[in-house]
């Protein structure tokens, strides 16, 4: 028995009988209201994990449990009620000619009555700060605004987990930060689980846990601070640490040991001040 919201039990997957295994004996759990970052180099199997969670794909070996249901062809429609997915390119996700139509799409598919639907659209656009764009054409929005609308579309169906699959990859640093702040706030406000899939380690700092994938296997499960401290190991598996981690690593080589591994510039400055004041 488990209380986990999502559980992978010895999952192996390949895209065809003559294809190589893309996931090999992968096991992990994710609790309700937990923020888990899944990182790994290109092709390490991250997106495949996302597609397995909402039943776009099924494993050849092992079992996936979402919200108490084993994911299979009989349960996918129930599973998808709990799982909201946002992908890298928002243009590929838009179906409506206005923001309102677009957010309505998932609700119409679920047969939500019109009154309730309009209410939910208002609420979810408000949650991502896009209420003023109700009648705008999605394709004319900025990249960050498009991703907000995509998140609103997912929120409208009241999911229990949101999966962002490289959802900020096409945004500039400001847009990335804004989306991360939005989802961080939503997770707390709505008591959601959040899975962020990325190869950018700057995006893991707020996660409660990090799953590092390498060649289809779980290479490490840990917290962001620990992951940041493994610069050399991460380089071996094709991942580069952000500036603060590289800087702290270089200081350590020079014999300057900081009190804790900094996760951002503010923490780095604090640690440097503390070190300086002890000199
Ligand atoms: N439809 C498909 N058919 C065959 N092979 C596929 C298919 N989709 C993905 N693959 C292969 O499966 C492996 C894992 O792909 P996946 O997209 O899960 O990796 P990823 O870690 O998300 O990569 P990226 O960071 O580039 O998005 C890769 O080797 C990829 O080429």
Automatic annotation (TrEMBL):
<keyword id="KW-1278">Translocase</keyword>
<keyword id="KW-0547">Nucleotide-binding</keyword>
<dbReference type="InterPro" id="IPR050095">
    <property type="entry name" value="ECF_ABC_transporter_ATP-bd"/>
</dbReference>
<keyword id="KW-1003">Cell membrane</keyword>
<dbReference type="GO" id="GO:0042626">
    <property type="term" value="F:ATPase-coupled transmembrane transporter activity"/>
</dbReference>
<dbReference type="GO" id="GO:0015087">
    <property type="term" value="F:cobalt ion transmembrane transporter activity"/>
</dbReference>
<dbReference type="InterPro" id="IPR027417">
    <property type="entry name" value="P-loop_NTPase"/>
</dbReference>
<keyword id="KW-0472">Membrane</keyword>
<dbReference type="InterPro" id="IPR003593">
    <property type="entry name" value="AAA+_ATPase"/>
</dbReference>
<dbReference type="InterPro" id="IPR030947">
    <property type="entry name" value="EcfA_1"/>
</dbReference>
<dbReference type="Pfam" id="PF00005">
    <property type="entry name" value="ABC_tran"/>
</dbReference>
<feature type="domain" description="ABC transporter">
    <location>
        <begin position="6"/>
        <end position="240"/>
    </location>
</feature>
<dbReference type="InterPro" id="IPR017871">
    <property type="entry name" value="ABC_transporter-like_CS"/>
</dbReference>
<dbReference type="InterPro" id="IPR003439">
    <property type="entry name" value="ABC_transporter-like_ATP-bd"/>
</dbReference>
<protein>
    <submittedName>
        <fullName>Energy-coupling factor ABC transporter ATP-binding protein</fullName>
    </submittedName>
</protein>
<keyword id="KW-0813">Transport</keyword>
<dbReference type="InterPro" id="IPR015856">
    <property type="entry name" value="ABC_transpr_CbiO/EcfA_su"/>
</dbReference>
<comment type="similarity">
    <text>Belongs to the ABC transporter superfamily.</text>
</comment>
<dbReference type="GO" id="GO:0016887">
    <property type="term" value="F:ATP hydrolysis activity"/>
</dbReference>
<keyword id="KW-0067">ATP-binding</keyword>
<dbReference type="GO" id="GO:0043190">
    <property type="term" value="C:ATP-binding cassette (ABC) transporter complex"/>
</dbReference>
<dbReference type="GO" id="GO:0005524">
    <property type="term" value="F:ATP binding"/>
</dbReference>
